[in-house]
Amino acid sequence: MSAQDIADKAGLSVTLIRRLLRTAEQGRPVSNIARTTADAVQGIPIPVRREPGSSPGLTNTTEAAALLADLARAGWPATILAARLGVSASAVAQVRDRCARLHVDLALRIRRVHRELISLDPVSQGVRAADAARTRAAAVRRAAGN
Known about the structure:
The chain is mainly alpha-helical. The chain has eight helices and two strands; from the N terminus they run αααβαααβαα.
């Protein structure tokens, strides 16, 4: 928990919490702390730890970027993919352009959407032909630039 989180939950000022934390970190003797302050801080419930398998975690974007590039070559615009993935079009572009890392749950959604859409023609699924052609052309330019 951050000092701000502790202050918000305890109903104290963040400055006071930072002062208390700084004293403990630097090995200085702890000055007298008012009983109400101590009770407020000690009464904060400890955050529940997640089970090891339940944390979304982060992963490398290599596979997800390849799958998104594959969908772009097939003519699927980033806006359509973003809507299906539940993220913004700029998030799709960041993953496609290989940002450092992404959440595992997003990587799994990208894999699922790829499996669903790769065999379908975007135009037959309601994507305008001009949008599909523009997406294909941009995918070819991106591939040539790499």
